[in-house]
Amino acid sequence: MFPNIIFLWIFGLIIVLISYYFDKEKTKNGVKKGLKIFKGLLSPFLSIMVLASFLLALVPPEIIEQYLGSNSGILGVIISAIIGSITLIPAFIVYPIASELLRRGASYMVIATFITTLLMVGVVTYPLESKYFGKEVALVRNVLNFIAAIIIGFAIGVII
Amino acid sequence: MKKYLKEYGFILLFLVFGTVSYFYNYNFGMNVSNVFLNMFIEMISFIPIVFILVGLLDAWIPSQKFQKYMGPDSGVKGTILSVVFSMFQAGPLYGAFPIVYILYKKGASVKNIFIFLGCFSALKIPMLSIEIGYLGIEFTLARTLVAIPLFIIIGYIMEYYLKNKDFKITDPTEVKS
User: Which chain regions cross the lipid bilayer (chain B) (predicted)?
Assistant: First the structure.
């Protein structure tokens, strides 16, 4: 956790400095815009965190370990894949919850599957997607992505 | 003032709940506050720099330059460009559909369109940097390295599947008018 954050800040500040060196005006505008986006997202972000805090305080770690831990096996992965596919939550809101679940005994395979399906498969957005690609193509894309998401989840579970 | 109260009222209420819990030694309330405090510290310690990067990305990346090189004859170069171009984006998956429509209009190949869409959904740099902060660089690296080949395979499958079909991408906002 800690080294990652330091890495991000160093990486980020180097990018800002390089950008500033090449174009002061662009850099100022970019930073301003970024902070504006952050300000806009802060309130929904914090609200979700409050709700998640209540949920996590209510559910004992043993339950999390039983259903989302490494012993939950295929069932845990399938459940997380289905929930990930049908929910539509911005990923950046899910990461704090995912990291908290990992700390409480959830397995990497389950969390990875949940995140990948959340990102790649969109049941809720399927109607919108069909309008662009047609019903059949949108369905095929989602099914292929669902399979890929599960492969990625398993691979991460094996690697980490 | 009213606007801020509406936006942050819920969080303010929660802060009151947390403080009162500590005063009265209310266990459950203290537990909830601790979980929240941990999440908050974690978030505020690196999320600002991520959004500064998002803003910079937006200011620097001209999207028109990429589109030209993603056509049917673009080969490996087009594939690589599709991956890279998608990573320099931000926003949710449904935000990708209008971009994909423009790519299609500009003559990008079916394969590259679906590679772009896949990588857009899962490998945007702003998102990856948030992921590194929360889940660690090993997690993100593993996910990225496994995902890229899979998305390229999906691109090929889609191209094969749509070869003899009359595939079109339509813009639903245009149909209405």
Answer: 7-24, 36-57, 78-101, 113-137, 144-162
Instruction: Name the residue range of residue A136's domain.
Output: 61-160
Domain end marker among A58, A76, A107 = A58
Give pTM, 2 decimals.
0.85
User: Tens of pLDDT along chain B (177 residues)?
Assistant: 777 888 889 999 999 999 999 999 999 999 999 999 988 998 888 888 888 988 888 888 766 667 777 888 888 999 998 998 888 887 778 888 888 998 898 889 999 999 999 999 999 988 898 999 899 999 999 999 999 999 999 999 999 999 999 899 998 876 544
The alpha carbon of residue A124 and the mean position of all alpha carbons in its chain are separated, in whole angstroms, by 17
Closest approach of A134 to chain B, Cα-based (Å): 8
Q: Does A50 share its domain with A6?
A: yes
Residues A46 and A111 in one domain: no
B88 close to A (CB below 8 A): no
Which residue's structure tokens are 């509406």? B6
Decide: residue B76, CB within 10 A, 0-12 exposed, 13-18 middle, 19+ buried.
Answer: exposed
CA distance A153 to A113: 4
From the CA of A99, how many Å to the nearest CA of chain B?
Answer: 6
